[in-house]
């Protein structure tokens, strides 16, 4: 008698016709725009070509100076993107308005937070959802971030982590950028990570319901690092999907204009005060004012010849020390 081969335990084998009928998780893609119309339109063009069948697109205009931006976006992508607008720039917490809207009106399974200065691969969302569904403990899945100007070069480290003794994110720090240290993919398997930027990240609906929304007091920079820390401390895993690709315009997000230079030191102190131990905060303060502070001043004054940016950095450090976050 021939032995009958039994299917693997808990495995369900569907006929080809039925596979196409299985409903895929609903995703809300949220894009934040602030005075970046050209970037946003290019981003939306790429999102419109996404192969994943079950998603909606929301654009939140964060009080842009050009008052007709919202109308232009809506006209070009009528019927595809739902456009919302605020009266003033509220930083990355602009995502919160769109998240709150979609949670109440669309009931998505997942929410994709996407920077407007990115271009998304056609299969990116498929890959993100695929990895998300492999483990119930996964709360967030990040795409692999490639350089817009160098499409084959990975931009963000795949093993980023906060070093609480110096108060910085190893892998996303200025030394890594200055030395042009570029990570590589060793294999095509999803890997757990401790920190990731919020340039393209898929987050479970339940995470927002349990952990809450993005902390608006950060305004710009460190808000994603803070949220990742919250997720991890609630027991969620953060992983990256190796086949999910986007291309990010780094210079658009981090040009030397005084904005990043103010918020980055300020928010480092906020993050460390919230999560670091007393000993770690002492170590961080000694490192910051003993080394980092003076290197940054020389960098802005000598390398960039921007005393205005140097003043912004000093003001950010002072506000961070004094706990002025509003």
How would the blueprint of this fold be written?
Layout: H1 16-19, E1 27-33, H2 37-48, E2 55-62, H3 69-76, E3 81-86, H4 94-105, E4 110-115, E5 118-120, H5 124-132, E6 138-147, E7 161-163, E8 168-170, H6 174-178, E9 191-192, E10 200-204, H7 205-211, H8 223-233, E11 237-248, H9 250-253, H10 259-275, H11 278-303, H12 307-322
Parallel strand pairs: 1-2, 1-4, 2-3, 6-11
Antiparallel strand pairs: 4-10, 5-11, 6-10, 7-8, 9-11
Helix pairs in contact: 10-12, 11-12
**What is the count of distinct domains?**
2
Order of helices and strands: HEHEHEHEEHEEEHEEHHEHHHH
What share of the residues does DSSP label as strand, in percent?
Answer: 15-25%
Tell me the name of the CATH homologous superfamily of the largest domain: Spore Coat Polysaccharide Biosynthesis Protein SpsA, Chain A
Beta strands, count? 11
Radius of gyration: 21 Å
Q: What is the name of the CATH class of the largest domain? A: Alpha Beta
- Report the CATH topology name of the largest domain: Spore Coat Polysaccharide Biosynthesis Protein SpsA, Chain A
Main beta-sheet annotation: 9 strands, mixed
Question: How helix-rich are the residues, as a percent range?
Answer: 40-55%
Name of the CATH architecture of the largest domain:
Alpha-Beta Complex
What sort of overall outline do the alpha carbons produce when their principal axes are compared?
globular
Distance between the termini: 77 Å
- Average pLDDT over all residues: 87
Tally the helices: 12
Structural class: alpha/beta
Low-confidence sequence ranges: 1-21
